[in-house]
Write a structure and sequence with these properties.
Elements lengths: L12 E6 L4 E11 L4 E6 L7 E5 L1 H6 L3 E3 L7 H4 L3 H4 L13 H46 L1
Antiparallel strand pairs: 1-2, 1-5, 2-3, 3-4
Length: about 150
């Protein structure tokens, strides 16, 4: 009996039918998102041509679009990172962190920008205060004319 709980399928090799192409494609289940109920299937697994797609395997299994292949489970964590960890296909390297000096420069630039925006906001508030008094002055002068 084949395990069909989506998280239990991680590491299993399967074939999925693509009706628009009228063909079956072999892939490895590399991740599962329980919040969305979607399973990540990676095609050309652990190769330079690797691509992944999120599927609702329960629906696709009900349509007969999924065939489990009798192969041993793949250790997807040893092969590389999962899409949920990197936002990309399995085995994709995480972006390197910038050097500390670059982070400091960016932090200083953000602080300067924040100060400038705060000054502009204060100037904008004082402009609003002046414009409110102008409206009040013109309103009171209109009342005197009527």
């Amino acid at each position: 009996m084949v395990e069909t709980a989506p998280v239990a399928l991680v590491g299993r090799t399967l074939s999925i039918y693509w009706p628009e192409n009228k063909e079956w494609s072999k892939g490895v289940v590399t991740d599962y998102n329980s919040g969305e109920g979607k399973t990540c299937v990676t095609y050309a697994f652990n190769t330079p041509k690797e691509e992944f797609t999120w599927h609702d395997l329960r629906k696709e299994m009900a349509k007969g679009y999924v065939k489990m292949l009798n192969t041993s489970k793949v250790d997807v964590l040893k092969a590389g990172n999962t899409p949920a960890m990197t936002g990309g296909p399995v085995g994709a390297a995480a972006a390197p962190l910038p050097a500390p000096e670059i982070l400091e420069q960016e932090a200083e630039a953000l602080q300067r920008k924040r100060k400038m925006l705060e000054e502009q906001a204060q100037m904008g508030d004082s402009d609003l205060d002046d414009s409110d008094s102008d409206v009040t002055d013109s309103d009171s002068s209109d009342e005197g004319e009527g």
